[in-house]
Fold this protein.
Amino acid sequence: MSRESSNINSNEVNENNENIKLIWLDTSHCSPHIQSQLNELNSTTQFHTDLNRCITLIKSITDKQIILIVSTTLAQTILSQIHSHPLLIS
């Protein structure tokens, strides 16, 4: 994977027929092996390296429950901004 941000616009993601949105956030890129495993769980898993774009995405989700996998370095920052999102599974 390139060192450029791997953020994906919502309209670029395949249709997700599941009720769950799986999102990975880490400033370093996810290994191809982990990406493959997460994509097996949910084929529309989104991998993000940009905190603000990820927060924007999460706040825009209104129709699916959200599972967020986040690095310890970003956890406190992102959770303080999205902890009250009604669809975030904790």
Observations:
- Confidence is low (pLDDT under 50) at residues 1-5, 9-13.
